[in-house]
Amino acid sequence: MKVLEIKGNKELSGTIRISGAKNSAVALIPAAILSDEQVTIYNVPNITDIDALSEILEYLGSAVTREQETIKIDPSHIKNRTISEEHSTKLRASYYFLGALLSKYKKAEMYFPGGCSIGARPINLHLKGFEALGAKVTANKNCYRIEAQELKGARIYLDIASVGATINIMLAATKAQGKTVIDNAAKEPEIVNVATFLNNMGAKISGAGTSTITIIGVEKLHGCFHEVIPDRIEAGTYILAGALCGNRLRIENIIPKHLEALTSKLKDMHVPFEIGTDYIVVSKQKTYQPTKIKTLIYPGFPTDLQQPFTVLMTQANGKSTVEETIWENRFMHVPYLNKMGSKIKVKDEIATIYGPTPLTGKKVKATDLRAGAAMVLAGLLAKGTTTIENVDHILRGYENIVNKLQNVGANIELKEI
Ligand code: EPU
Prior knowledge:
The chain is of the alpha+beta class. It has 2 domains: 2-19 and 230-416, Enolpyruvate transferase domain (UDP-n-acetylglucosamine1-carboxyvinyl-transferase, Chain), CATH 3.65.10.10; 22-227, UDP-n-acetylglucosamine1-carboxyvinyl-transferase, Chain, CATH 3.65.10.10. It has 14 helices and 23 strands. It has helices spanning 22-31, 48-59, 85-88, 96-105, 124-132, 163-174, 189-200, 232-245, 260-269, 303-313, 334-339, 369-381, 392-395, 401-406, and strands at 2-7, 12-17, 39-42, 63-67, 70-74, 107-111, 136-140, 143-147, 155-157, 179-183, 204-206, 212-216, 225-227, 246-252, 273-275, 279-282, 292-294, 318-323, 343-347, 350-355, 363-365, 385-389, 411-416. The site of uridine-diphosphate-2(N-acetylglucosaminyl) butyric acid (EPU) has 27 residues, from helix 1, helix 5, helix 6, helix 10 and helix 12.
């Protein structure tokens, strides 16, 4: 079994460079099959979710070459095959192959997707969008079959501004006939990055980044070069490491605008930081002000930073609260933080954190990706040794986390026990 072992309470200084955004790259790779020619994508993070998607591309017959952070995908010889359960369950984002295959072949078959157990995670809005475009959706023995005689543009209102549904409908509508309008679309930066990629391949998409996205269907898409935006969640995680243990820890290759919900809360808590055009320098302070966060869709406070942020709240002087509104099951890190010494109570979807509490290293688990990030932060701060089990969750989403932290002074090791 692989574990992360952290000997905590070390000062962190130096520079951490942020990688490409996981939640953008995991959509760009399935989107690439819409092209009839090779596409090149730069700044792709080296994480296991990308390995899993590359395997699906190869299984479909696409040529894939990866060199450092560049991936070249030549989908000109792919065949439409049922994506097996072994492939689909490795990650959540396998569901983007549904929209991409439907767009390209008018037919997609895939077993149910996997991903972190942070809630029920239905995909009814994705399927409703496909149906509005003219597809018939059936689910049989954990396998979706989505088929259309023709895909025709439609006006689609999303009950919830879902990231996944917005991207999947954009993919399906790219090659549909006529005009599709998505109302109450999600506005996350990753959606803008995917729309830009599709437009670079010849799609006609406007309005990405606002709540109304318009897609005029095109017949063919061509090769292009594209770059993944920096990962705002990875950046936020290391910024929090700086607030907990930093001595002028510099996090670079960030887009400060994407991090405003976080930096405004850091200001409220009196975390000392300086922001430049593409970097932030953060230091630790003895005491912090307590605060409240409520997770919301972009540009609100991101749910993916809620668990890491809780660790900082354990160091605030007084009562802080976290209200989780996106996922029903995103407090699984709390029992482990309490085991390390925090005082956190969860009732309904609100966690109340009573600080400040010193943390002590213990044996804990990464129950999901961002809970794992919270455990790493707690381990960096804690006195003594923290051993984190189920590290595969963390490696799915954080490129080179061990080296990045070692390089700034952390005592962290990935061990086989
Ligand atoms: N929802 C539905 N029906 C749907 C789709 C979503 O009810 O058809 C609900 C969900 O249950 C949830 C809410 O809508 O309550 C928002 O879900 P959304 O579809 O926006 O989430 P997602 O696309 O499945 C992406 C990220 C998540 C991130 C959320 C919210 C990817 C691969 N995943 O998930 O990232 O938490 O958006 O920002 O892009 C992570 O990186 O750790 C992670 C979980």
